[in-house]
């Protein structure tokens, strides 16, 4: 047993003796850091290195690195985008007021002025407008969707008494594709996200006020 312990302790004794000889000769031995400290230091260096690399890459969102407004193509696109928004904003404002205000009750038909605007700017551009109108257009009505009762939508009332709903978003997309073919897909991709239309509120407020004044 003693011999076994002695053999086990020999390497440790040799290491201590080696350190003693180095100290006696005036040569300091290199300190050994704990593994966890070395690992933490390495990780920190990697984080710093990564941060330095990332800071060296110019960011599109950084105004000091990149100015999109200095790009002629981008400025041209923003000008055309503004033109399209100004073009469609009046009918968007009218449609939203018809559907989402107390201007019309469920089942109520539009006034002559509102109906003319909806037919001229929306319904005629629907991809299936002829099928929607069917035997003939009698009027445009606001009511609850038969399947989604929490949603109000526009309906075509036919001359035979039948009625069918239509999406004004589909009408708008078709209108934009017809009038702005080279810009339509980009505009629709940016402003009709998840089947919802996103427009500038400052345009909307101005046009809503205008339509209310004109249609009193």
Automatic annotation (TrEMBL):
The entry's keywords: Chloroplast, Plastid, Transit peptide
GO CC entries: chloroplast
Keyword Chloroplast: yes
Main location: plastid
InterPro entries xrefs: DCL-like
Keyword Iron found: no
Protein's name in the database: Protein DCL, chloroplastic
Subcellular location: Plastid, Chloroplast
Pfam families: DUF3223
GO BP annotations, alphabetical order: chloroplast organization; chloroplast rRNA processing
């Amino acid at each position: 047993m003693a011999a076994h312990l002695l053999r086990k302790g020999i390497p440790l004794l040799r290491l201590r003796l080696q350190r003693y000889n180095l100290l006696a000769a005036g040569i300091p031995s290199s300190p050994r850091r704990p593994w966890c400290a070395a690992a933490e230091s390495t990780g920190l260096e990697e984080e710093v290195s990564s941060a330095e690399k990332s800071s060296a890459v110019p960011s599109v969102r950084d105004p000091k690195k990149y100015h999109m407004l200095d790009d002629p193509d981008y400025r041209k696109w923003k000008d055309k985008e503004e033109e399209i928004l100004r073009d469609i904003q009046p009918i968007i404002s009218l449609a939203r007021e018809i559907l989402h205000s107390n201007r019309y009750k469920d089942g109520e038909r539009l006034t002559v002025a509102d109906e003319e605007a909806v037919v001229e700017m929306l319904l005629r551009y629907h991809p299936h407008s002829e099928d929607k109108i069917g035997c003939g257009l009698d009027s445009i009505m606001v009511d609850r969707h038969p399947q989604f009762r929490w949603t109000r939508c526009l309906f075509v009332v036919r001359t035979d008494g039948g009625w069918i709903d239509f999406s004004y978003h589909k009408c708008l997309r078709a209108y934009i594709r017809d009038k702005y073919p080279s810009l339509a897909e980009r505009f629709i991709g940016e402003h009709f996200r998840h089947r919802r239309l996103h427009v500038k509120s400052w345009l909307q407020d101005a046009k809503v006020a205008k339509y209310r004044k004109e249609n009193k």
